[in-house]
Amino acid sequence: MEYYDNKYKKEMNLCYLEEIEETDKEIIIKTEVNINGIDVMALIDTGANVSFINEEVAIKTNMEIEEIETQNVRTANNEQSIKKRAIIDIEFNGYNTNMKLYIVKIYIMI
Fold this sequence. Notes:
5% of the residues lie in helices and 60% in strands.
């Protein structure tokens, strides 16, 4: 995935894809990212409007979690109420960025 950074006027390769899985219905792209000094695997969803993180991972990576007004989110498989989020600095492939992650209860992690 290429990203054009207007601040530095250059193209940067955002992530080295660790693993690409192909199933009958979908392609799953995963890469390693660093959150607060802890390496975790992340699922890259290029079509998503927002980013989510499992509550357990948010706690293990020492994220500062804040309460928010309840928002209902519908995914491909279900609907869930979101009441927390974290705004974090994340690093992948030497690139640092700030992200807003909504905390969800996901019981199956990749």
